[in-house]
Amino acid sequence: TLSWSASFYPQPLLNIRRHSTHGTTPAFPTLNVLGFLCYTTSTALFYYSPLIQSQYRTRNNGEENTVRGNDVAFAVHALVLCIMTLSQFWPSLWGFEKRKVRLGKGVWGIVVGCVAGIAWVIGMAMRKGLDGGRDAGSWAWIDVVYAVGYVKLVVTVVKYIPQAWANYQRKSTDGWSINQILLDMIGGVLSIAQLVIDSSLQSDWSGITGNPVKLGLGNVSILFDIVFMVQHYILYKGNKVEEDGMGWERRGLIANDDEEAAAR
């Protein structure tokens, strides 16, 4: 957790030192804000809401959920740092070099799709849930909490793609902090190692086999960390670019106002 928490600092600190977000895409911090807003909401409800805790026990043979106070603290801390990083794309707030970059249809589609999915589950809990969604035997408010949590999982899969593609197009990782990737990699490896060790000591592998989606998503993060490390240390080592190199943005997940105007 300490390594993961530290991984949110290198990029905003690098941006502050360079007085620019040059070399980074707004897609990554935008999706991170969405993901950690949902993660903070779901962990806080599991930790603080008696209703959600009761519904969890009902559906899990009386077992308590495993969310602890440090999980909530980590989520809030991560959300604050993600918002800070995203705010740096408003250069007037930080006195940064101006960039005419905005989110494109791809990211907006992900955001709107996730919000629509959550809204649909809320509607099901309200319309088809028993006792206004308080009965865990049908559609219930815990399903809304699960839906909010699943958004974080979706974001984990897609959030790295725009930056990895931008690095490929620019043939450079200049402006993208490799330190955040190294810390994320350390956190991911140690987390999986702890999961394996705990399961081995307890002779109970349900923590791994019972949640293959979570384990798989952890591996996805590590896979992208490796991609970024290969880009930084091997493929584009030492490469610098004078131009922003974001002409591809209008075709993908973010868009450049000047180039869209020229295209029209």
Question: What features would you describe in this structure?
Answer:
It contains 13 helices and two strands, in the order ααααααβααααααβα. The chain has a two-stranded antiparallel ribbon with strand order 1-2. It has helices at 2-6, 10-18, 27-48, 50-59, 69-87, 91-94, 105-128, 141-158, 161-170, 178-201, 206-209, 212-235, 257-263, and strands at 101-103, 254-256. Residues 247-252 and 256-264 have low confidence and may be disordered. It is mostly helical. The N and C termini lie far apart (47 Å). Helix 3 (27-48) packs antiparallel against helix 8 (141-158) and helix 10 (178-201) runs antiparallel to helix 12 (212-235). Helices cover 68% and strands 2% of the residues.
Keywords:
two-stranded antiparallel ribbon; mainly alpha; 13 helices; single chain; globular; 264 residues
- The value of Rg in angstroms is 20 Å
Instruction: Using the alpha-carbon principal axes, give the shape.
Output: globular
Q: How far apart are the first and last residues' alpha carbons, in Å?
A: 47 Å
Order of helices and strands: HHHHHHEHHHHHHEH
Main pleated sheet: 2 strands, antiparallel
Give a short synopsis of this structure.
This protein has 264 residues and is mainly α.
List strands and helices in order, with pairings.
Elements (H helix, E strand, L loop, with lengths): L1 H5 L3 H9 L8 H22 L1 H10 L9 H19 L3 H4 L6 E3 L1 H24 L12 H18 L2 H10 L7 H24 L4 H4 L2 H24 L18 E3 H7 L1
